[in-house]
Amino acid sequence: MLMFTEKDFDVFTIEGLDPRMAEIRSTIQPKFQELDDYFAEKLGAELETEFFVHIAQHRRRTVYPPENTWSALSQKKRGYKMEAHFQLGIWSDYVFMWLSLIDNPKNEKEIAQAFLDNQALFEPLDDDFYLSIDHTQPEIERLNEADLEKHLTRLRDVKKGEFQIGRVIRKTDDLLNDPEKARAYMLKTYEELLPLYRLAIELQQKD
């Protein structure tokens, strides 16, 4: 059973686009594939649907190496950014598991308003959940009621607004030393986000 190790975090210290991408492909992407295949099977069974795995290839980069890398689970075979999706990814100091709304997905404003109108769906989430409002930056913040409303309002009203919610595993966390427990923790994170995911997807598939 594959899991992220110190070597994966060290990939982001490698200088140069080609050397770093070579290491991402050889060490990180196989872990994305194995883990996401597992999550796709489990979540697909719960939702009675099929998920497709998408692994970021960073093909648009020509000079600068990526500072993070990720994969996504989507019901769309040809892409993922056009709808709410689950992300599994890694920065130099943590692994993240997000429910993501980025790059102006379909019915973004309606989803944001629905989340604002149904904030009770966030209440069962533990205090170890985080928010990210820019998928290109590593800064995240703890989930709390005031910031939640502020960020959802921004998602609704600002064209470049983004919203990601989930958990992270720091590279120093002993959980990563137990691949089975770490994988279970990741899956549980996605499962706890399913009520929000269902609401978002319902709005995106309504027309």
TrEMBL record:
The organism's place on the tree of life at top rank: Bacteria
Matches recorded under Pfam families: DUF1054
Protein name in the entry: UPF0637 protein I586_02436
UniProt record similarity statement: Belongs to the UPF0637 family.
Protein's organism: Enterococcus moraviensis ATCC BAA-383
